[in-house]
């Protein structure tokens, strides 16, 4: 169900997410101190390749990490196996990636 | 059994315990109630033996050494896996009641005797089998007890194959392919054994779909191991070793 490659992928994606979450929280706390509005925040993020890469990386890591985690839960709780389990894992990955990238696009596209 | 039950009937004023014992074959069965005399120094295995010998000779259970060495007599006692020959009644009695059942996570043969086949088959699947690197014609290899690998192996070596950890493991309950704490703990000791020659095969064996990466580190194995081993730590060691092996890193 969970072999060494999936285990490695989940650990690597966690290693990517952890610093990105810390930077995100730190920037949020710093940015809202002087009462920035959503419009003002968007004016800084939209058109920024750096923020697109930052949040794009986060969404990619979350999609990988969560899809593998959900795979384990669905296998152990719902007893899903074989091709159905593989399909579920890919569907969770693609779904999360699609939703996340839509949000990244909305925040960073100019 | 050497326990003296000779005075049990004469001592009618002695308090009794209410003992529920699982009876049945395979998937079907039910708990049966017995009133068992309580004695001053009494193990769970003594209780089971009392039920079988003077009370109901058809009761099936397994034991051998009676001194915590052979790993034969493990059962669920009040819902927890225990080695019954070394578990004193006084430590586990709940309001004068005991519930004794066959080991969790294993098929039942009859009554309290669990079928250990899959438990031991998984030891082989995990390559938890010694593969010597020398023949009988070679000189005996000196082993330095202070070597860190030997220390790691020695810390996990005292397993008696009782399957208490296997019964305690929720990952085994959820995933029938999972090799389980005992087999993986043994694989870890062999991985650290300088005399063994099959580490590549072993790392491959514990990296598959039922391998060490399915452990959730809940530490039920460690909590219930009667020999106070820590299979979770051994499995964590295997996880590190398999990653290094996959990535081509050396120790």
Polypeptide structure, described:
- The complex is a heterodimer of chains A (110) and B (251).
- By secondary structure, chain A is mainly alpha-helical.
- Chain A is 85% helix and 0% strand.
- Chain A starts with a helix and ends with a helix.
- Chain B folds into two domains: 16-114, Ubiquitin-like (UB roll) (Roll), CATH 3.10.20.30; 117-247, Fumarate Reductase Iron-sulfur Protein, Chain B, domain 2 (Orthogonal Bundle), CATH 1.10.1060.10.
- Chain B has helices spanning 44-55, 89-92, 117-125, 148-156, 164-168, 170-174, 181-191, 199-205, 220-224, 231-247, and strands spanning 16-23, 30-37, 74-77, 80-83, 97-101, 108-110, 113-114.
- A five-stranded mixed beta sheet of chain B has the order 2-1-5-3-4. In chain B, strands 6-7 form a two-stranded antiparallel ribbon.
- In chain B, a hairpin with a 2-residue loop joins β6 (108-110) and β7.
- Chain A binds chain B through residues 1-8, 11, 75-77, and chain B through 174-175, 177, 207-211, 213-214, 239, 242-243, 246-247.
What does the radius of gyration of chain B come to? Answer: 21 Å
Report how far the terminal alpha carbons of chain A are from each other: 42 Å
Which structural class do you get from the secondary structure elements of chain B? Answer: alpha+beta
Output the CATH class name of the largest domain in chain B: Mainly Alpha
Number of domains of chain B: 2
Number of strands of chain A: 0
H/E element string of chain B? EEHEEHEEEHHHHHHHH
Q: Give the overall shape of chain A.
A: elongated
Which strand-content bin applies to the residues of chain A?
Answer: under 5%
């Amino acid at each position: 169900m969970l072999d060494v490659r999936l285990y490695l992928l989940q650990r690597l994606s966690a290693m990517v997410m952890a610093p990105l979450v810390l930077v995100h929280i730190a920037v949020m706390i710093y940015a809202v101190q002087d009462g920035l509005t959503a419009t003002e925040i968007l004016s800084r993020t939209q058109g920024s390749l750096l923020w697109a890469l930052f949040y794009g990386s986060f969404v990619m890591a979350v999609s990988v990490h969560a899809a593998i985690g959900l795979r384990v839960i669905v296998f152990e709780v719902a007893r899903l196996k074989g091709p159905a389990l593989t399909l579920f894992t890919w569907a969770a990955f693609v779904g999360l990636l699609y939703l996340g990238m839509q949000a990244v696009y909305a925040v960073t596209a100019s | 059994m050497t326990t003296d039950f000779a005075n049990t009937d004469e001592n009618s004023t002695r308090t009794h315990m209410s003992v529920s014992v699982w009876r049945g074959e395979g998937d079907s069965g039910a708990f049966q109630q017995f009133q068992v005399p309580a004695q001053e120094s009494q193990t769970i295995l003594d209780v089971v033996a009392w039920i079988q010998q003077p009370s109901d000779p058809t009761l099936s259970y397994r034991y051998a050494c009676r001194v915590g060495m052979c790993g034969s007599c493990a059962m669920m006692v009040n819902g927890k896996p225990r080695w019954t020959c070394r578990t004193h009644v006084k430590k586990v009695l709940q309001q004068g009641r005991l519930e004794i059942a066959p080991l969790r996570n294993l098929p039942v043969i009859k009554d309290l005797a669990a079928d250990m086949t899959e438990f031991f088959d998984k030891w082989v699947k995990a390559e938890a089998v010694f593969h010597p690197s020398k023949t009988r014609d070679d000189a005996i290899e000196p082993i330095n007890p202070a070597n860190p690998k030997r220390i790691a192996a020695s810390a996990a070596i005292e397993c008696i194959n009782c399957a208490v950890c296997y019964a305690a493991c929720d990952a085994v309950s959820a995933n029938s392919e999972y090799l389980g704490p005992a087999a993986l703990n043994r694989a870890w000791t062999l991985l650290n054994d300088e005399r063994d020659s099959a580490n590549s095969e072993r790392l491959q064996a514990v990296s598959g779909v039922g391998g060490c990466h399915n452990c959730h580190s809940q530490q039920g194995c460690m909590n219930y191991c009667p020999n106070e081993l820590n299979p979770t730590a051994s499995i964590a060691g295997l996880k590190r070793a398999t990653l290094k092996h996959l990535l081509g890193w050396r120790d």
